[in-house]
From TrEMBL:
Belongs to the cytochrome P450 family. The keyword Heme applies. Pfam families: p450 (PF00067). InterPro entries: Cyt_P450 (IPR001128), Cyt_P450_B (IPR002397), Cyt_P450_CS (IPR017972), Cyt_P450_sf (IPR036396). SUPFAM superfamilies: Cytochrome P450 (SSF48264). Keywords: Heme, Iron, Metal-binding, Monooxygenase, Oxidoreductase. The lineage of its organism: Bacteria, Bacillati, Actinomycetota, Actinomycetes, Micromonosporales. One of its GO terms (molecular function) is oxidoreductase activity, acting on paired donors, with incorporation or reduction of molecular oxygen. It comes from Micromonospora coriariae. The keyword Protein biosynthesis does not apply. PROSITE patterns: CYTOCHROME_P450 (PS00086). This is Cytochrome P450.
Length: 430
C-alpha cells in the first residue's frame, strides 16, 4: 500500500485516500516508502490509542523520516524531558497528574477559568474583522490561527509581543517532525526548535526567580511541584509549556478553519449558527469527526501485536489514521456525509482515546463554540470568496488550511423564502 501524505490526493482530497485504505480488506498496511504501518479502522485506531502497554508514545514527537546528520546534531541538543504526549509510564501518569491539577480540563473549570479570556480575545478579533467591512480577508491568519494562540499565551502568562516568534517556531516544529523538509530546511527548523526550547526554559526560570507566582499555568505548575523533583522538575515544567504552546494552538486553529470552511459553505448553515447558538456544539462535534485537525497520529509498538489478520512486529512505527477511523462505516452511518444531527457523532477519535486523551478538548470546544457564535452574530453576511483553492500544509499529522479567503459583509443576507425552503430540505435530507 502506498501513501504519499506530502503531495497529491492526500492533500487535496484526503477523504478519497481514507476511503481507498478503508475499503482494502487487509485493514492494516505497511507503507514501505514511509517506513510506517498504516492503521485505519476505527476499532484498531481506538485500540492503538488506548493500549499504552502495546503502543507506546516514546517516538510520537520524533521526526517521521531520516533526518540529515547536521540537523540531527541540533535536535540532539534539545534536552526537553518527555512529558504527557511523548511519555510512557511511569513518567506519563505523573506528568499527566500534574497537568490535570494545573490546567483546566473539564467543561465547568474551563468555562470559569478560561471563558473570560476566550470571550475577550474573540471580541477583539471579531471587532478587527468588522472594521474591514466590504474587504476580502484570509480567515486563517486573521482569525483561526490567531485566536487559539492568543488564548494559550494568556493561559501561560506569556506576553503578546512574543506571538510572532512562537507562531513561527510552532509551525516549524510541525514541518520538521511530521513533514518532509529538505536537508537545508531541516537544519533551519531544528535551530528554531532549539531556540524555542531555550525560550521555554527561560520563561520558567524567570517566573521561578521572580519570587511572585501568579495564577498563570507556569506559576501554577511551579506551585504544584512545591520544590519536589519527585513530583515534577523545573525542566519538566518547561517541557509542559513547550508542548502546550504547540498543542494548544495548532490543533484548535485547524478546528476553527475546518468549522468555518463547513459553516460558510452555504449561507443557510452560517445563518443557522447565528440564529441558534444551541446548535453550535453539535456542529463543532461533527466538524471534529468529519475533518479532524489531527488526522494522523503516531505510536511505536512495544511488542508484537496482531490487528485483524496482520501482525505488526515490535519496535514498528505506526500512523493511526484518525481521519479514516472517523469515516469507518462500521461505526458511522453515511460516514462521508457532514451531518451535525447524527446520533453517532460522539464516537469520533479526534481527541484521542484512553490514557493520553486530549487534555485541551474542553478548551478547544469552548473556543470553537464562542468563536463561531460571536463571529456569525457580528458578521452574518460573511462568505467565502468564490475562487477557493483549498490546500493543506504537507505533513502526516496536522490538517491545516493554507488559507480561507472570505468577504466581510456585516449585513445579513436577504432571507429569501425559496432559499430557506431549499436549506431546510437540505438539512432534513442530511
Ligand atoms: C481541536 C483541537 C485539538 C485536537 C484535535 C487535539 C487532539 C489531540 C489528540 C489526538 C491527542 C492524543 C495524543 C495521543 O494519544 O498521543 C491530544 C493530546 C493532548 N492534547 Fe490535544 N487537541 C486539541 C486541542 C488541545 C488544546 C487546546 C490543548 C491545550 C491547551 C491540548 C493539549 C493536549 C495535550 C497536553 C495532550 C497530551 C495528553 C497526554 O498525553 O496525556 N490539545 N490532543
Amino acid at each position: 500500500m502506498r501513501l504519499n501524505p506530502f503531495t497529491g490526493a492526500y492533500l487535496s482530497d484526503p477523504a478519497s485516500v481514507w476511503r481507498r485504505i478503508l475499503d482494502d480488506p487487509a485493514g492494516v498496511h505497511h507503507a514501505e516508502d514511509l517506513g510506517l504501518w498504516l492503521i485505519s479502522r476505527h476499532e484498531h485506531v481506538r485500540r492503538a490509542l488506548g493500549d499504552a502497554g502495546t503502543f507506546g508514545n516514546a517516538l510520537t514527537l520524533a521526526p517521521v523520516y531520516e533526518v540529515c546528520p547536521e540537523a540531527m546534531s541540533v535536535i540532539m541538543q534539545i534536552d526537553a524531558p518527555p512529558t504527557t504526549a511523548a511519555a510512557d509510564p511511569p513518567v506519563h501518569p505523573r506528568t499527566r497528574r500534574a497537568l490535570r491539577a494545573t490546567f483546566a480540563n473539564t467543561p465547568d473549570r474551563v468555562e470559569s477559568e478560561y471563558g473570560p479570556i476566550v470571550r475577550r480575545r474573540v471580541d477583539q478579533l471579531v471587532s478587527r474583522l468588522v472594521a474591514r467591512q466590504g474587504r476580502q480577508v484570509d480567515l486563517v491568519p486573521e482569525f483561526a490561527t490567531e485566536l487559539p494562540l492568543l488564548v494559550v499565551l494568556d493561559i501561560l502568562g506569556v506576553p503578546d509581543a512574543d506571538i510572532g516568534r512562537i507562531r513561527s517556531w510552532a509551525d516549524g516544529q510541525i514541518a520538521l517532525i511530521w513533514g518532509q523538509p529538505d536537508p537545508e530546511e531541516q537544519v533551519r527548523l531544528a535551530q528554531g526548535l532549539l531556540e524555542f526550547w531555550h525560550y521555554c526554559q527561560e520563561l520558567v526560570r524567570q517566573r521561578a526567580d521572580s519570587g511572585h507566582l501568579g495564577d498563570d499555568f507556569i506559576s501554577r505548575a511551579l506551585t504544584y511541584r512545591d520544590d519536589d523533583d519527585d513530583v515534577l522538575t523545573v525542566t519538566e515544567v518547561a517541557s509542559l509549556a513547550f508542548n502546550l504552546l504547540v498543542a494548544g494552538h495548532e490543533t484548535t486553529a485547524g478546528l476553527l478553519a475546518h468549522a468555518l470552511d463547513q459553516a460558510l459553505s452555504s449561507p443557510q448553515r452560517w445563518r443557522a449558527i447565528a440564529a441558534d447558538p444551541l446548535s453550535v456544539p453539535a456542529f463543532v462535534a461533527e466538524t471534529l469527526r468529519f475533518a479532524p485537525a489531527i488526522d494522523g497520529w503516531l505510536r511505536v509498538t512495544r511488542r508484537e501485536v496482531t490487528l485483524g489478520d496482520v501482525t505488526i512486529p515490535a519496535g514498528a512505527r505506526c500512523l493511526l489514521l484518525i481521519g479514516a477511523a472517523n469515516r469507518d462505516s462500521a461505526v458511522f452511518a453515511h460516514p462521508d456525509r457532514f451531518d451535525p444531527h447524527r446520533s453517532d457523532g460522539r464516537d469520533h477519535l479526534s481527541f484521542g482515546h484512553g490514557p493520553h486523551f486530549c487534555i485541551g478538548a474542553a478548551l478547544a470546544r469552548l473556543e470553537a463554540g464562542i468563536a463561531l457564535t460571536r463571529l456569525a452574530a457580528a458578521i452574518p453576511g460573511l462568505r467565502l470568496t468564490s475562487e477557493q483553492h483549498r490546500s493543506y500544509k504537507p505533513n502526516v499529522a496536522f490538517r491545516a488550511h493554507h488559507a480561507l479567503a472570505a468577504t466581510i459583509d456585516i449585513m445579513a443576507p436577504v432571507d429569501d423564502p425559496k432559499v430557506r425552503a431549499t436549506a431546510s430540505a437540505e438539512v432534513r435530507a442530511a
